[in-house]
Records
---
Amino acid sequence: MCIPSNPQILDVRAVFLYSRDVDLRPLDFPISNCGNCGLSMSHYDQICVEQVVLDSPIQSDLLTESPLAQAYQHSLMLSRDSKPPRQEILAFANFSDTEQAYAERFWSDQTQPVFFMTLLNLGPHADLSTVEARIHSIFDAQTLVYFTFDYNDLVIFHKGSSFSEYVHKLLKVDYGGNDSSAWISDSITLYSFPESFQTSSNAMTTPEVFGAYLRMGVANTSVMEEFRQRLLKDSPSTEVNYILGRHDIGFFQPNATLEWIKAVQELIRSTSQEMDKKAADLVSPIWYTTSTLSIRIPPEESLPELGSIVWNGTHIQSALRDSMKTAYEKFCAAYEDTRYEFGITADDVWLTWLKTGVQQAISFLENDLTQELGLCLVPLYQDFLHYSTDLWKKLEPLVSMIMISIRGAFFEEKRNVILWTCSKTYPFLWIA
């Protein structure tokens, strides 16, 4: 990943993806007063974005004072105080004075009813700056692009009121880059509705009509039946069906609007509040287990009209084990040289754990059942080994302190990647 040179202002944002607690009770809203916290209707119940304020100025190149280390330390401190299960993504952007002013206006804007966030993975030959330029040429307003050192490469933040407009622009980003330097290998879009959307009048809604499919898992049949009856009373054209799969029952509204979504959110909230009042008389105060809202947008163009892409899949290096072994040995050699030079006691337990983790990541990648998890972990280990090898060769005598920071940040980030992947690929394995 290349980072723009000569940055003027580094803007860092921490994205927190909250899920309901292990007892599946709804989260109190809002969970944060950051001003960019919204209710989501997917595996995640809330999305919050907070600014990470860095110490200024940076006095040296030491890892403990670098912007990246400060951002991850900020995330680690917050995670220790977090009660609901959550995952974090740290996003970075280099802005000019004018761009920073625009970013501040973007993050303070509370007039739009939908907050979109798309996580992009670039193709093997894609260029970061080329993709970023394409995004800006397609999304001309109310959009910011940040890069990340997590599993993804870029994050698109957008505030708007039209699902259709966002979907069609995103498809152009995903499939319109005919040159391999602009190819996207994967994109995941999350969206949320700000607190102001819940409490505002119809001023935040638009006449846009789309298909909306709410799927839910049943935990209390009688309460779900009450919910169904109330929903059909308010929206008679809603179709109800049973589902084979992750969810149990679905509610499809072919002519949904933002106002319809707002009404459904309020109905879910009021039903949960009524359950809380009856909690003492119930075996369990839970009436649904899972809930996912899917938006259906009619296509404006066929996929070939968007661009000509023939994706050959992820090319797994045939000698992957040998290359990872070589990277690990180079890391250990650089670590040992630095350790001897500064008289640091070897952390053999951690080195053994790292070696085992590398082998396990490769095993995941080579297994069809766990390949998605391996695709997350192998690049993480590769980047870590290559970066750390170079780092050990350049360090000054605060190595022991820096070693602790590297180890703690790496462990936490690996856990974050695993939780993210499992929650999307193996939702039945999700553990809070």
---
Amino acid sequence: MRSIAISFFIAIAVFSAAQANEPQSFFKPGCTRFAIPDSVEHKSVMSVAYGSQRYEVKITQSGSLIREDTVRSGQESTALADMKTNLSYCYSRLPDGGYKELSIIGPSDSNSTYTIAKTDEIGERLGEKCAVWNVAYGTSGIVEKNCLTHDGIILWQKVLSGSGSILHSAEVTSIDRSSVRPEELRVPAEILHLSTWGNWSNGAEQAPNDEVLLESELNPKDSPRISLLIQRFGGYRKIERKEASYHIVSYRGEGVEISVTRALDGSLKRAIVRHNNQPLDAKGIPMRPEKHRFILEKFCNEFNMAAGVSDYYQTDCRTPSGVVLRTESHSWGTNRRLVAKHISEDKLTLMEVVPPVDILQTVH
């Protein structure tokens, strides 16, 4: 996938050079709204119309590096992307200036192929001419029209439905072709420090201290076996889920959650860090009439974990101390049942359950 991301930049370098009309396929970064592969150094402001909402996006770009700063419904957010590697970052802030959430999206999270082609249409905005390029969103029928100057600055954008109606649009309100400082296109160093996202070093030994490995029972024999490893150490949780096509590791501690999703080849799909004040262990509602089981010589009660949800059903069988020994779910024709195959108690250490201190710097 990394080679595809790099070839995407090479293939559509014509996007701003305006020399070829042949359609090209590419994957676009997950964070940025405006995917312009190469541009002269500049800063611009886009006025976006999205339904009844109106907001501004400030673009800062130098070559293949692009930054977008947005204030939408009072929420500040920033997106940065490297169009050569297809790696992108998006983060938002709290009202007090602290960080609210961070997403790091890798090349292998591009699930859809986009096709881009230059048209003969010429546009204009703020007295500057631009060539119109159409970006097709797979087989959805949606088309994104981007009007770019000869040096790669976007002047307007329209996203059209299959019937031709405008879903949302944007147009430039100011352009400044001044130089861009390198630090303006870098991710803030502190946002990649684990300490920015809470205290992960409270190692006082306390209950619970347990580990359980669950494996799937409903998979066909020739399918990769789905597994779930749940580790609990005091106020920290680590959960590893292995699916047929991806692998997720998530960490919880002191109001913060970190999750990292990778493809089977180890390449990053996405990493997410956010504040989460929900209980560490979901409570659920006891099943009525009461249901219980014995698994690995341990007693557990059945709980409804998705009460009030119409299109999803999940039950967990939990021991009195909260260890999940069996979980079963049904959603849109997909049935899952995982049952405990191994359990251990009082053997974990803090370092086995909390994330590595450099996890956000080395995740990609």
---
Amino acid sequence: MAYCPEAGVLVTHAGPPRMNAWEGKAKALRKTIDFANRDAMRELEPEAYYASPYHQLLNNRFRTGDYGVSDLHAFLDAFDCGIMCTGHTPHPYLIDLDAKQPLPECGFRDGLGFVGGRQVVLCSSFGAFHPALKRYLELDLTQRHDTVEDLFLRGGAAQPIFPVGMRPPDVGALPGAEAILPHVT
């Protein structure tokens, strides 16, 4: 995990930990995360490992109910950050495939997935709806980012992996692409 409170940006592999056990204990949570190490995690019983913020930062996904929007907001507030940038979650996991629309509190824009207005879900290798939608972020860390909308107000944050003039691999779209890309069949 990396964070830059001045810019309001926190980066981690997956979603935030469940915050109910940490309510009112922001300093303790930060200490637990800052001092977590692989060797100590190996010594834990499975239940303690799976309940640890360390494990949850590596594996939590919104779709499976591992965390909710309130957990996201409380976690970001504990680190004085506005947005969380993650990977780990393929974009189809943010779609209700039966309803053919984003899950509640989720959305998409310019190849980025969003949860709760404050989490950006990047797919720069696996998990984008289509290779042409793979993105990385270029952030101006001298500017504060309090919501995902701030990424678009200043422009240029979402950069394509395959720039204009470079053809992405010719593969089919992933399930759920038709929910956000009407021309996909």
---
Amino acid sequence: MGPPSLRNALVALLVCVAQAHAASGPIHSPRQPGHTIPKYVGQITPRNVGILLNDVAARRDRIIGLQVQIAPNGAGDPKGYVVDRDDRLFVISADVKTALADDGLEVVAPKDEASFLHGQWILDGFYVVKSGGIHQGVASFGLEKVDEGAVLLSPKYIVRRVSISRSGR
């Protein structure tokens, strides 16, 4: 290499570049988008409940957003879905066939996550989907609350609205 002064100058330059790069933090440009989070929006019906529950189940250990309304007790349709809220939990379950379970799916959230407004249950927020196992043939998935501000303000997340009335495949 060259004389010691040139070598010292190059080392000092490399250290400065490395420190500047480390101080700048992660870079997310429009060309390098972050993780996309689906936010399901709309009215849950007997027709789309299976699609929604399957989508939630497919996102185990990932963040999802929900801004959904659901009429209590399946709106009188015994083959649709069941909504229940007890002292601890809010549950949406449906008899849908899946690769995971023979007798259906259920999504469980802490009871305080659901509010009752104008004759419907409202579930609004961001959650991490966790597997709750299979109980009597029903696959169960829990929703753990995630800070909404942390999701919406983070440059590493992109929230994409998904209308559940048009999410059929």
